[in-house]
Write a structure and sequence with these properties.
Blueprint (H helix, E strand, L loop, with lengths): L13 E5 L5 H10 L5 E5 L11 H17 L4 E4 L2 H15 L5 E2 L3 H8 L6 E6 L1 H6 L1 H9 L4 E6 L3 H6 L6 H11 L9 E5 L7 H8 L4 E4 H15 L12 E4 L4 H10 L6 E3 L5
Parallel strand pairs: 1-2, 1-3, 2-9, 3-4, 5-6, 5-7, 7-8, 9-10
Length: 275
């Protein structure tokens, strides 16, 4: 059990970061579950996608962003990116130490999906970087060696979603072409291992017609955030929260795309933390 922290820190914000703006699905889920919590979000849009970066580069970015979030007095750091979670979670934990809790998007999902009774074959779809790391299969097998894991890289999905192509004929065609893969045959659950993918969950569910359980990280991670904050007596009191959204590189298209990932209209502020 994590060490209890003083309740005086409860008014501080939750820090969330991603390689871009896809992690706003996690931020949105946290806002729904914890409406009193203030959020500080950092999207490293200058370096996206993380999937084609080296592990050392991703670890460097993650440490620098964590430094920034700690300077913002964040009481928790949420790594809302599968690639960064796979490559830099332990690095961030070591860097932060006992200062604040650190939550990734992989471990909560693995614990959730391995706890499903009767599961035999779990599918995983994500970016090339996440699938290449084989992190989900390794962690799932560490908990239950009897489970079969089928992983498939789906590189077209994230850029498609960022461009607003979901819930239409184009997205259904692309999604269907991936899910038709033999690798995913006979799965009983499917992990959407990218924080963009909650936006296409309805289409994935429609493809499987209720025969496959679909698991996305946003809601599962939000629940984990709530439980860890409660355990550490860090839940914010009832109040009107204040959110800040930063990116390392700004374009108007980024700001327009945020409406796809976060229900409310938000303003992105460019922040150069690399100097």
């Amino acid at each position: 059990m994590a060490k209890k922290r003083t309740s005086g820190l409860a008014n501080r914000p939750i820090g969330i970061f991603d390689s871009g703006i896809g992690g706003l699905t996690v931020a949105n889920a946290i806002q729904k579950v914890l409406p009193n919590e203030s959020l500080v979000y950092f999207g490293d849009t200058a370096h996206l996608p993380y999937g084609d970066k080296s592990p050392d580069s991703i670890k460097y970015y993650a440490i620098r962003i964590s430094q920034f979030l700690l300077k913002q007095q964040c009481k928790m750091i949420v790594i809302a990116c599968n690639t960064a979670s796979a490559m830099a979670y332990e690095t961030v934990k070591d860097f932060v130490g006992d200062a604040v809790p650190v939550i990734d998007v992989i471990n909560p999902v693995v614990e959730h999906v391995t706890g499903i009774a009767g599961s035999k074959k779990i599918g995983v779809i994500g970016t090339k970087g996440t699938i290449k790391s084989d992190i989900y299969a390794k962690k799932i097998h560490a908990k239950n060696k009897k489970l079969e894991v089928a992983s498939l890289a789906t590189p077209l999905l994230a850029p498609m979603i960022e461009e607003g192509f979901f819930n239409n004929k184009i997205s259904r065609t692309v999604i269907g072409s991936y899910l038709d893969s033999r690798k995913l045959s006979k799965i009983d659950s499917l992990i959407l291992a990218c924080t963009h993918y909650p936006l296409i969950r309805p289409e994935v569910e429609d493809y499987y017609k209720g025969k496959v359980l679909i698991v996305d990280s946003a809601g599962v991670v939000a629940d984990r955030v709530k439980s860890v904050l409660a355990e550490n007596e860090l839940l914010a009191p009832k109040r009107k929260p204040v959110h800040h959204f930063y990116v390392s590189d700004f374009t108007k298209s980024f700001e327009e795309s945020t409406r796809n990932f976060f229900r409310s209209k938000i303003h992105l502020e460019k922040k150069d933390i690399w100097l």
